[in-house]
Amino acid sequence: MTVLDLEKDGVIMSLSIDMSYSDYLSLDPILSAQKLQSAAHDEMLFIIQHQTSELWMRLCLHELSTARTHLIKQEIDPAMKMLARVARIFEQLNSAWDVLRTMTPSEYTQFRDNLGTSSGFQSHQYRLIEFMLGNRNPAMMKIHEHRPELHRMLGQELQTKSLYHVVLDLLAEATGTIFPSVVYTSNTPHLANEAVMSAWVKVYKNPKQYWALYALAEKLVDLEDYFRRWRFNHVTTVERIIGFKRGTGGTSGVKYLRQMLEVELFPELWNLRGIL
Question: What is the dihedral of CA 123, 129, 135, 140, to 10 degrees?
């Protein structure tokens, strides 16, 4: 059997001075961030599931913010690459539900009371993703008032054009359309608009003429497709584990999550398919 001489092969073995893998990734604080509130075995799964989801959402925000900046500069190609990455992040988040579903209702009840009033409903990163994509409801900010810096961050996002608003600017310019001001409302969810629909139909009926916008629109549909799947898997996971109990944060649980399945981020891009 061959025994490898790693030092002879050039592998750096002494890391007392140089940066290590653990140093670069700040693994010590990350791996010590699982503060169990009970002796239940499955609480570790529950915590890591949600912590890793928040890390993926952190990356989503990074990608969406930069994509929006590119679109403002009319740099569509790099923005599409980032939107494609966000879609794949939500694919990754979808797979994570499969792991959480290995926990049974009996196992969850062993530590559920230890959650107190904490709930995924309170995730400021998820709220920020929704705001960035155009599903804006200022009432949702109240739950973050106890953290002024987070409340301020969400408020600043509401003062900024959503990613879809920026895309609609490109659509208006390319098709010579003037959209009514209601389309750009910053403090309500985006609702389907006939003028926007007509402009998108024009693009979809002439994809060669408007290829960049056509491809961008499909990237948005792809992103929302994966986002919807994530929401659906969230509902089924919650129903499988707690049934129709109220959520720890006070929501109606499955009933509330099912209502969220009806939310459309880019409604015109879905509705136009029925009239082409």
Answer: 20
- Cα angle 260, 83, 141; round to 5: 40
What fold is seen in the domain 43-119+161-274?
A: Methane Monooxygenase Hydroxylase; Chain G, domain 1 (1.20.58)
Q: What is the DSSP string of 215-249?
A: HHHHHHHHHHHHHHHHHHHHHHHHHHHHTTPPPTT
pLDDT at 16 over 80: no
What is residue 9's predicted lDDT score, i.e. its pLDDT?
67
Q: Which residues contact 108 (CB under 8 A, 6 or more apart)?
A: 42, 46, 241, 242
- Encoded tokens for 236: 């089924």
Dist CA 152 CA 204 (whole Å): 39
**Cα–Cα distance for residue pair 205/173, rounded to 1 Å:** 17
Dist. CA 72–CA 75, nearest whole Å: 7
Q: Could you report the per-residue pLDDT of 187-239, keeping only the tens digit for each?
A: 888 999 999 999 999 999 999 999 999 999 999 999 999 999 998 888 888 88
133's CB contacts (< 8 A; 6+ apart) are 64, 162, 163, 164, 227, 265
Residue ranges in the chain assigned as alpha helix (H):
21-25, 27-31, 43-72, 76-100, 105-109, 124-133, 148-158, 163-175, 194-205, 211-242, 254-260, 267-271
- Map residue 267 onto helix, strand or coil: helix
- CB count, 10 Å around CB of 172? 16
Domain segments of the chain: what residues?
A: 43-119+161-274
If we measure between CA atoms, which residue out of 96, 86, 197, 78 comes closest to residue 133?
A: 86
